[in-house]
Amino acid sequence: MIRFRSLLAAALLAAAPAAIAQTAPAVAAEAVTPTLTMAGEGSASAAPDQATVTSGVTSEGKTAREAVDANSKAMGALIDALKKAGIQAADLQTSGFSVQPRYAAPKEGSGEAPHIDGYEVRNQVTVRIRDLTRLGAVLDTAVATGSNQIDGVAFGLADAAPVLDKARQAAVADAKRKAELTAQAAGVKLGRILTIAESGAEPGPRPMMAAYAMEKMAAVPVEAGESEYKARVTVTWEIVQ
Questions:
Q1: 95 alpha-carbon distance from chain centroid
Q2: How far is CA 38 from the centre of its chain?
Q3: Could you give the number of structural domains in the chain?
């Protein structure tokens, strides 16, 4: 019996180094790789080649029917005028329509509740102008035809992809610059890139809020300037000790 126990103990001792050798790679595999993550931002600009305008008509009437009829007539004239000015049907899109009651305030001290004394109808259309040299004339046409609501003008690009790509390149370069500076300050070196993700690429049409007098005027002067596009990336590097 004693001899059997001695043989068993010897066998376990002999197997121990092999077991340790087998578990060693697993322990090594669990070692955490040091990393450095940095965010970068970049932007690129280009002269816009198109603009969008939101124009509309607000009409009032004693009844909802009366207000809708007046608004429909005015909007029909506005859309016809825009088409005659060279705007294609594909570049016209209704972007808002509402019918709301108009309330009259009761006389002070009467104790009466506000009551409906008419209706207001709003109809808006978004117009894309592909030839910016005609933008001022289009705005003038809208106002002269009866538009009494112009919310603003936004400039942009028909194809923003090339400009966005430049912004992405600038964002990656910004992240790399900051990562190299941080690594140098910490006394380490950057290794291979482990992950890279885009956290946002934003087209940046330049809005220009419009406030125009509602009477006949010369072509409205406008300045297109440049449209700026931004990109953001997050990059993770392996740190080489």
A1: 18
A2: 23
A3: 2
Could you tell me which of 39, 40, 37 has the C-alpha nearest to residue 236?
37
CATH number at 203 reads 3.30.110.170
- List, run by run, the mean pLDDT of 10-residue segments along the chain (241 residues): 49 51 52 92 94 94 96 95 94 95 84 87 96 91 91 89 96 97 95 92 54 45 83 96 76
Q: Which domain holds residue 190?
A: 32-48+158-213+227-241
Residue 165 in domain? yes
Q: Is residue 121 a part of any domain in this protein?
A: yes
| pLDDT given at position 31 | 73
One domain for residues 162 and 44: yes
Tokens of 104: 């009259």
**Tokens at 144, concatenated:** 């002269």
Token pair 């500076």 is found at 181
**pTM beyond 0.85:** no
pLDDT score for 112? 79
Integer Rg of the chain from CA: 34
End-to-end CA distance of the chain: 56
Structure tokens at 52: 């969008």
Q: Are residues 59 and 126 in the same domain?
A: yes
Sort strands 50-61 and 115-129 into parallel, antiparallel or unpaired: antiparallel
**Per the domain annotation, does 123 fall within a domain?**
yes
90 DSSP 8-state letter: G
